[in-house]
Amino acid sequence: MDQNPSPVKKRNGNSIVNWLELPDHVVSLISNKLIQIKDYIQFGSVCQPWHSIYTENRHHISQQLPFLMITTELNLSDEKTRSFYNVVEKKILNFKVRVHQNRIIVGSSHGWLVSIFRGNKRFISLLNPFLSVNNQIRLPYVRSKNFTDYDILAKVVLSKNPSSNPNDFIAMAILGPSHCQLACFKAGDKAWTYLPEKYCLMMDVLYYKDQFYCVNQFGKVFAFDLNDHHNPKITTVSPEIDHNTAGNRFLVESYGELLQVCRLFRTELIGWNCRFVREYFYGGFHVFKLDPVGFKWIKMDNLEGRALFVGGNASISVLASDFPGCKPNSVYLNDDYYEKTEQDGIRPHDIAVYSLVDDAIERHSPIGSKHRIQRTIWIEPTL
Questions:
Q1: I need a labelling partner for 298 at 20 to 30 A (CA). Which of 92, 128, 167, 335 fits?
Q2: Where do the KIB1-4 beta-propeller domain residues begin and end (predicted)?
């Protein structure tokens, strides 16, 4: 990159403005107005002074539209890679993630992929595909007598981005095929700390207002203060939600508010052996906002222009107008459901977009995507 490029000039009446002579604090304010990560990267490539500001502020970039990590026909012949899909532009990106063939990707948090080893699923590691150095972190071995290696890890959420806080982050994990245990790990520790067993059957976990929030199968939410993670403070912050048709529950932070998204199942009787199969795409969603003062949930009829991206591995909220093509007042759901995978074999990944306003669901499959018992992952790009 040219370290001394020609000044960027703009004619303003009879004067010529040299943008490169703007004070650093003004340029920094301009950079803070950029929303999409691609614009921020282009900003940092203008010249060396602007690149320095980019480097200083890159960890403070606003919430990004997540990509969907999928398997395509190209990946089927090369199991060491995965592809990214832009759900708004409906195109597969020309960017492949190298993943060690002995690892299974199970989720993401702050742009870091969470993986387990095929041979021993108690070994957990973090990988940031957007970084070229310092992009891997190995977490301690998971020890528990309550479950086997099968489907040992349901979800891991990080309190902070390890890129900017390598020695000051906490990981919270939901463990077991039945979400039967919670565990936490603080950077620098040599082992996981396991939380009381009575806090089990948790369906989702979110880091919100300096605490971890977990929702159980009945919609009740608990807050975990892990500043002293060996002696955590646990409080109940919401009542249950009486919703018998809710199959999954997700917690999402959206502009400072805590939302609970209930995915509704529609159960159908199919097949010669009369098996019940849950078709979750057709059930829709209900979204509730927590009133912490009134200790109650308020059902939302719209999302005030926001879009929610939910799934078993991540939950993200963005302002739809910041990303052209993103549908406001909608819930985007990735296909992380496996009940029919063995019958279907290799099939396209499905994505559902549910409109709260119209109570309608749109489904589409990324062109060229393939599903071979590998879950899709929402991942937010970070720098």
A1: 335
A2: 84-355
User: How does pLDDT run across 13-42, given as a tens digit for each residue?
Assistant: 556 667 777 888 888 888 777 777 777 778
The answer on pLDDT for 269 being more than 60 is no
Does 159 lie in the same domain as 44? no
Mean per-residue pLDDT, 103-126: 85
Q: Is residue 7's pLDDT more than 60? A: no
Sign of CA dihedral 381, 106, 262, 197: negative
Whether 204 is covered by a domain: the verdict is yes
pLDDT tens for residues 151-192?
678 899 999 999 989 999 999 999 876 667 899 999 999 999
Which segment, 41-50, 129-138, 139-148, 213-222, is predicted with the most confidence on average?
Answer: 213-222
pTM of the shown model: 0.83
Same domain? 41 vs 109: no
Question: In this structure, are residues 375 and 106 in contact, taking their beta carbons and an 8 Å threshold?
Answer: yes
Asked if residue 68 belongs to a domain, the reply is: no
Domain containing 46 equals 9-59
CATH of the domain at 131: 2.40.128
Residue 166 within a domain: yes
Instruction: Report residue 12 CA to chain centroid gap.
Output: 44
The reply to whether 125 and 183 lie within a common domain is: yes
Domain co-membership, 126 together with 227: yes
Tell whether 264 is covered by a domain: no
